[in-house]
């Protein structure tokens, strides 16, 4: 994932919420505007975080859109 985002840190708040911080690289930018991000890398990052959060053998992510 480091081609699109660099991991900065992960923190867990007292209320049980986990927060992951990432910095986008130039490879995550949109095709028409360098100040926007393309959704494919962001969706891949979201999917990776969801898969790693609470994986279960009998379940899988079917769709993210």
Order of helices and strands: EEH
- Helical stretch tally: 1
Question: What global shape is seen?
Answer: globular
Q: Into which percentage range does the β-strand content fall?
A: 15-25%
Radius of gyration: 14 Å
Query: Sheet with the most strands?
Result: 2 strands, antiparallel
Number of strands: 2
- Unreliable spans are none
Helix- and strand-based class? alpha+beta
Q: Span from first to last CA?
A: 19 Å
Mean pLDDT: 89
What would a concise description of this structure say?
With 65 residues, the protein is of the alpha+beta class. The protein has one helix and two strands.
Features:
65 residues, 1 helix, globular, two-stranded antiparallel ribbon, alpha+beta
Question: Could you describe the 3D structure shown?
Answer:
The structure is a single chain. Helices cover 23% and strands 23% of the residues. The chain is an alpha+beta fold and 65 residues long. It has one domain (5-53). It has a two-stranded antiparallel ribbon with strand order 1-2. The longest helix has 15 residues, at 39-53. The radius of gyration is 14 Å and the shape is globular. The mean pLDDT is 89.
């Amino acid at each position: 994932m480091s081609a699109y985002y660099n991991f900065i840190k992960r923190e867990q708040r007292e209320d049980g919420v986990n927060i992951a911080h990432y910095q986008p690289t130039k490879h995550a930018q949109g095709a028409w505007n360098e100040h926007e991000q393309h959704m494919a890398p962001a969706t891949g990052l979201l999917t990776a975080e969801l898969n790693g959060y609470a994986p279960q053998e009998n379940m899988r992510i079917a769709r993210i859109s």
